[in-house]
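Before any further analysis, backbone shapes were mapped to integers, which produced the following:

***
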Amino acid sequence: MNNAIKDTIKKLASNNGQTVINIRRYLHAHPELSFQELNTAKFVAKTLRSFNIDVQEGIAETGLTALIKGKNPEKKVVALRADMDALPIQETKETPYKSKIAGVMHACGHDAHTASLIGTAKILHALKDQFEGTIKLIFQPGEEKSPGGASLMIQEGVLENPKPISILGQHVTSFLPTGKVTFVKGRCLASSDEIYVTVKGKGGHAASPHLTIDPIVIASHIIVALQQITSRNRSPIIPSVLSFGKIISQGASNIIPDEVKIVGTFRTMDEPWRKEAQQKMKHMAQGIAKAMGGDCTFIVNKGYPHLENHLALTQRAKQAAIAFLGKENVVELPISMGTEDFAYYAQKIEACFYRLGTRNEAKGITSYAHTSTFDIDEDALVLGSSLMAWLALNERVTPS
């Protein structure tokens, strides 16, 4: 793409800036939980139609797609994705656009993702006579909740009719200041499995532990021992995390309970190791419990796969971003053990998931995602909408 198109995209994004901010503020004030995005989907569809963009609603119930056709629309199809759901968090930061829904908040930036993609759609629609091919917009529900809206939309044919050759996804990050972006080639984000362990023993008086089978002691041994799975059983080149965030027992200072429940997460970036580690953990936990006279049930709720960015596509996108922003604004960040259902798209077609900086210390915008004070620097929305438009157009004219 030439400099004239680049300048036009930047001008259109700037002109649309307040509109995109207003959209983001509306969405932030009216959040909806995963797979409940009924009003959000209606709002997005209505907004796109106001730009004269055709919309298909009702994919995975609350998901929707739209097509922007340029010249020779069959030449190449590129998909752009934004997620729409919020989190069950009570917002505590006071802003004019604070959530109006008790206990629900856009604490992960999905309002910004949706608003940015709407802004991108408006830019691309204005340029439809200046590019070849088709842009497929995907507005997705349920990223925050298994089985993930991506998997459901794929099942319902979102990657067909027309079929994209590649897909781009954008996510805000408080690890980078506004104006900067980051791309990671290859392994990008981890898989995520939920672990539910129930340790059963025999309760009794804490003054007579010899008459009990103490599940708290057993659970303690299991928690410590399981850390050996990630520290001593895996290859050091495979990132893995095992963390436990909840331990529940109904004992007291003088009561040893009958059972203990433990809840945790296991994350990695290698699917064969993921399966092997789950079996090792289950075998170890049950073996420890049996050896100590108790019993143990070990349940793994399988979550999203790890996200593997396509090497060539990500390199093309990175170089296009450098051309758009300047080399100094395309920076390196390490891989993250966070998780994303965007990984399901990456299993089907070439995919690139990149990060958009939204931190602004001067404005006091520094909180991280999934916290009650999370916010974004809205100046990043202009860049978010313009960069995605530029990446889409550059991908369209660059052979795979």
The first helix runs from residue 3 to 15.
